[in-house]
Design brief:
By secondary structure, this protein is mainly alpha-helical. Helix content is about 50%, strand content about 5%.
Length: about 100
């Protein structure tokens, strides 16, 4: 439960920071990798590109904080390899779903 609280706290903080500082990495860079054009079309009164970057940053930094907490509590060994897969772009993979079976 504490891991979820850590994740949500960091997610909210970094999402809010990104709304004020739009170029905070890696959100804008990840948005560029999506291959979609940037848009200032507002979504809940926030430019769509900025909102997507904020969510990317919130998720990535939230997961990093959560993993650091797991390692500090010895729930994950410092020698283990951790693979983080951000599935936020998974709908773009649907046409290729047969390749992942």
């Amino acid at each position: 439960m504490k891991g979820a609280i850590i994740f949500l706290t960091v997610f909210i903080v970094f999402s809010a920071v990104t709304l004020g500082y739009h170029d905070l990495p890696p959100g804008r860079q990840l948005y560029g990798l999506l291959g979609v054009s940037e848009t200032e079309t507002p979504v809940i009164k926030i430019p769509a590109t900025t909102l997507v970057s904020a969510v990317f940053n919130g998720v990535i930094y939230g997961v990093i904080a959560w993993l650091i907490d797991l390692i500090k509590k010895d729930r994950v060994s410092k020698d283990e390899i951790i693979l983080f897969v951000h599935t936020g772009g998974s709908p773009r993979l649907y046409p290729f779903r047969d390749r992942f079976k």
